[in-house]
Write a sequence for this structure.
């Protein structure tokens, strides 16, 4: 049985579990199976509507409740009433319990497995616009860049790599938005949302041959250059407030500090300050 066949079998068993349990008012798929953008390795995101009075009983015996669905090696409570599960066939299942008599769902983003009576209300979600988040992230990005000399001086290369991975995602979101695309809620659409040149840049900059000072500094400087070249005009076009002073501060600081760390030749990667 292939990974996809495993997953489809799990979905069918989840549907049957919902149908057979009188406590379940509705169950629906969200995520990539909900939008029918699933692929061979998509996980299963299932939402289950129950009455508040029935929730504790299901959650307390969750592993036993899910036993007919798959042989689960992991059932982990994440937050609220969300549980992450992994089967012995490596199928990933996220189960999110909702409570109440009804639930509102976006018909373009879900696939209904089961509903008792008329407990689902269908309405489109408000468009997802992370512009406000991008404004906060841009200021945080330049704060992080200004800390680059600290990590280099202390030899904290693992910390620098971790920080790079976080701000790398900020640059991805910027490049997607600058191309006129909405920010995806998942990662599956990135290949088509990124311009080919931007995708090549991101692949190249992430290909770190080593975790040493020159390699990490160059990677940080390259994403800083991309932010400085793309973000100001994009923010202006969108009527957003860009943290120009933070950018200028961070770049001045790099020009001042990197030569003393023996890395001044790498400043060619970024615009002058």
């Amino acid at each position: 049985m292939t990974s996809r066949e495993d997953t489809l079998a799990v979905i069918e068993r989840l549907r049957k579990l919902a149908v057979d349990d009188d406590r379940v008012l509705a169950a629906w798929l969200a995520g990539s199976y909900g939008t029918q953008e699933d692929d061979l390795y998509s996980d299963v995101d299932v939402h289950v509507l129950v009455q508040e009075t029935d929730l504790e009983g299901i959650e307390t015996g969750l592993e036993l409740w899910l036993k007919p669905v798959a042989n689960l090696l992991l059932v982990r409570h994440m937050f609220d009433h969300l549980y992450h599960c992994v089967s012995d066939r490596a199928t990933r299942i996220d189960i999110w319990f909702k409570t109440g008599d009804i639930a509102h769902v976006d018909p373009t983003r879900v696939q209904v497995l089961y509903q008792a009576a008329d407990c689902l209300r269908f309405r489109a979600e408000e468009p997802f616009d992370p512009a406000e988040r991008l404004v906060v992230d841009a200021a945080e990005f330049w704060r992080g860049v200004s800390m680059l000399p600290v990590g280099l001086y202390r030899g904290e290369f693992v910390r620098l790599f971790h920080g790079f991975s976080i701000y790398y995602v900020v640059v991805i979101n910027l490049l997607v938005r600058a191309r006129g695309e909405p920010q995806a809620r998942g990662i599956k659409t990135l290949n088509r949302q990124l311009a080919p040149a931007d995708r090549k840049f991101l692949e190249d900059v992430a290909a770190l041959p080593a975790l040493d000072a020159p390699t990490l500094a160059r990677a940080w400087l390259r994403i800083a250059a991309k932010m400085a070249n793309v973000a100001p005009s994009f923010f202006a076009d969108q009527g957003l407030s860009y943290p120009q002073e933070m950018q200028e501060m961070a770049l001045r600081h790099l020009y001042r500090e990197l030569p003393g760390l023996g890395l001044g030749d790498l400043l060619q990667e970024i615009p002058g300050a």
In short: The domain at 3-122 is CATH 3.30.460.10 (Beta Polymerase; domain 2). The beta strands are 24-30, 44-50, 72-79, 82-87, 92-99, 103-105, 111-115, 120-122.
